Amino acid sequence: MVGPPGTGKTMLAKAVATECGTTFFNVSSSTLTSKYRGESEKLVRLLFEMARFYAPTTIFIDEIDSICSRRGTSDEHEASRRVKSELLIQMDGVGGALENDDPSKMVMVLAATNFPWDIDEALRRRLEKRIYIPLPTAKGRTELLKINLREVELDPDIQLEDIAEKIEGYSGADITNVCRDASLMAMRRRINGLSPEEIRALSKEELQMPVTKGDFELALKKIAKSVSAADLEKYEKWMVEFGSA
């Protein structure tokens, strides 16, 4: 899965594993690296051995570009090359098993990256399906606002569709930050001018004030979108060249 940061690639991987009813292994570069010589390759082998034992399984490798960046660069370490080679060997083994074994023994490898152009070519070939996870649409932004604000009291004048239009270009993570900051704005208005003792004396119900349009406007001034138009163009160009559905 390829896309800007904060678009929910990790959540999608977890949802896939849940829907398929498979055992889910969530790993990252820190999980598979060790300072001791040869340990990283052993960790990779152990991961795939466990995946086969608990099959059907889904192995999700987050930020795979940090493990399998392009080989042959001047700053590449020998240990990094060995880990890449072991991962490629294990993925080949999984691919061969899928063709011959029954579905109950299936091991599926999912990966996510924010930097697809940095991935090693051999790994890219093994990850046959390359899917773009874009920024949310207007409808998606409205749904994300509803999810993030489901336990927040809103002013009756607020129309979530209007806010969704204002946050075009925001990722899911950006929208979560905007909602959180707008909610805190309402609380700040409530405690403004009060002493610490008076604030502590307030009950939870007294601290809850409706979030207004002004709160969202202030939050949007503080929190800018994290993905630029140039970044989006770069993702789209890469998908035209290497993407597959």
TrEMBL record:
Keywords: ATP-binding, Nucleotide-binding. Pfam families: AAA, AAA_lid_3, Vps4_C. The keyword Ligase does not apply. Transmembrane segments: none annotated. GO terms for cellular component: microtubule cytoskeleton. Signal peptide: none annotated. Residues 1-137 form the AAA+ ATPase domain. GO terms for molecular function: ATP binding; ATP hydrolysis activity. PROSITE patterns: AAA. One of its GO terms (biological process) is microtubule severing. It comes from the Eukaryota. InterPro entries: AAA+_ATPase (IPR003593), AAA_lid_3 (IPR041569), ATPase_AAA_core (IPR003959), ATPase_AAA_CS (IPR003960), MT-severing_AAA_ATPase (IPR050304), P-loop_NTPase (IPR027417), Spast_Vps4_C (IPR015415). Belongs to the AAA ATPase family. This is Katanin p60 ATPase-containing subunit A-like 1 (Predicted). The gene is KATNAL1.
